[in-house]
Amino acid sequence: MPIVSVSSDPNALTLTVVGQYPVSLERLWAAWADPRQLERFWGPPTWPATFTQHDMVAGGESRYRMTGPNGESSAGHWRFLAVEPGRSFEVQDGFCYPDGRPNPDLPGCRMHAGFKSTPGGASFVLKTQFPSVAAMEQLVAMGMMEGMRSALAQVDDVVADLRARSAGTEIAVLDDAHVRITRDVRGSLQQVWRAHHEPALLQRWMLGPDGWTMPVCEVATVVGQTYRYEWAADDGSAGFGFTGMLLESEPPRRAVSTEAMLGTEAPSTHNELLLSPLPGDRTRITLLITYPSKDIRDMVLGTGMVDGMEISYQRLESVLAG
């Protein structure tokens, strides 16, 4: 069963959601602990979420934004007050300005999520506590109750996806313009960030198949700077390169840039790099690519780009291990 009930109590100033699922407690908890799974349901279907930070420990923070069907956006943040892995977490939830700063003009609330095993699987109870009657009325009027119901109704599909994440690079074609590439690597968050931003490290791993070198590696580390990467075949038979501008940078987690192929007039892509820490000193690399058209998307994917990325990521793990 998916969502069992969504109920409000004006006297207690609470909104409570109960969900039950035919999966293990560990599987249900993972849907909330993994930002890539969480963003598949934290936001109504027409307002999907993107988490740029998700530190699920007491004192940690999560930051996310939801994007509407016409390009509108709404940003939010969580501050974790308590976390019992596999059992419960409690957060202070609030709205943010587009630049990520908390927005005090909109009311926040406190949320407590409790998880437990059931005879048929596992369940959660998500209770939202409002600070005042006025805050509750304002958020309900903004559509919070309907939004929560439609958003959490998606948990059922997320936990039903029991496919194990492979060790290799995964690609998800989201729509005509967007592709998400994901790879888990052995290495800390700081190590993986450095490997993406220090030329001496980049030139050791970002090479694709064997037989190539990276003679030009000009990295952008400050917003507004341009970068330039060029590769050359060992036998001198071929070469290619990319350039672009760094648009946003939030070390050691997130970088946004444009990317255009040198020597062509093809329009740029928009690339968002997200790094998320995983248990066991591992890091999840997520690259969200926005293509200017479906034709260009298909052309790029048809070059074997993902296979080359997997070879590079294998090389990255060797570099970090060394």
Please provide a written account of the structure.
The chain is α+β, with helices and mostly antiparallel strands and 322 residues long. The protein folds into 2 domains: 3-160, 2-Layer Sandwich (Alpha-D-Glucose-1,6-Bisphosphate, Chain A, domain 4), CATH 3.30.530.20; 170-321, START domain (Alpha-D-Glucose-1,6-Bisphosphate, Chain A, domain 4). The chain contains 9 helices and 16 strands. The chain has helices at 25-33, 35-38, 133-141, 144-152, 155-160, 189-197, 199-205, 294-301, 305-321, and strands spanning 3-9, 14-21, 49-54, 61-67, 73-84, 88-96, 109-118, 121-129, 170-173, 178-186, 212-218, 226-233, 239-250, 254-261, 269-278, 282-290. The strands form 2 sheets. It has an 8-stranded antiparallel beta sheet with strand order 1-2-8-7-6-5-4-3. An 8-stranded antiparallel beta sheet has the order 9-10-16-15-14-13-12-11. Helix 6 packs across helix 7. The longest helix has 17 residues, at 305-321. It is elongated and about 75 Å long. Residues 162-167 have low confidence and may be disordered.
Q: For the largest beta sheet, what order do the strands appear in spatially?
A: 1-2-8-7-6-5-4-3
| CATH fold type of the largest domain | Alpha-D-Glucose-1,6-Bisphosphate, Chain A, domain 4
By CATH reckoning, the class of the largest domain would read Alpha Beta
Percent helix range:
10-25%
| Domains, number | 2
Instruction: Name the CATH architecture of the largest domain.
Output: 2-Layer Sandwich
Tell me the strand percentage band: 35-45%
Mean pLDDT: 87
Poorly predicted ranges (pLDDT <50, ≥5 residues)? 162-167
Structural class: alpha+beta
Number of strands: 16
CATH superfamily of the largest domain: START domain
Distance between termini?
Answer: 48 Å
Q: What overall geometry do the principal axes of the alpha carbons give?
A: elongated
Rg calc? 22 Å
Largest sheet report: 8 strands, antiparallel
Supply the number of helical segments. 9
